[in-house]
Every structure is written in C-alpha cells, then in structure tokens.
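seq as requested:
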Amino acid sequence: FIFFERDYKYAGDVRRVHIHLTYHKSRTSFLMPAIVKYLKTHPSKAEEYMRLKKKAIRYAKGNGNKYRRYKSRFFERMIKGLYEIDSKRRKIE
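struct tokens:
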C-alpha cells in the first residue's frame, strides 16, 4: 500500500493526517475494515490500542516508520486472532 502524511495547523496546534491507499482486493483492503470492526466490538482491545498509540508517538518522536514498527506486533497478534475467528466461523457454516 501507499502511505501519505501531512502536518497542518489547527487551533494553534500541529496535527498530522495520514492516508493509506491500497489496491482493490488486496490483503490490506480486507484486513483494515475487519480491524476497525474488531476494535469497535472489543472495547478493551481498543483501549489497549489507544495506550499503545500514545507510547508509539512518544517513542517515534515524529518518525512515521518508527511509529508503525512500534505498533506492528500488536497488529500481527490481532490479525492472527482475526484469522482464527474467521476459520472457526467457516467451520460452523
């Protein structure tokens, strides 16, 4: 996928916006909505992710690559869990 980011000023603060672009039917195009849905339906995991993001921001100090690497293990575990949930669901159907 392609990743874009841009800083802008809002209400006296600097904010960062980022956009992920991917191609149709890619692994990312299937996983991202599943991750969002999972976090919405599992508040404790969403809280964990929020805390992790804050730690990643402090660790990376504005370096996007370091920030994404810091969060990668959390996502790898989550994706593994999503695949396990999907395979169990397929066995039931």
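The mean pLDDT is 84.
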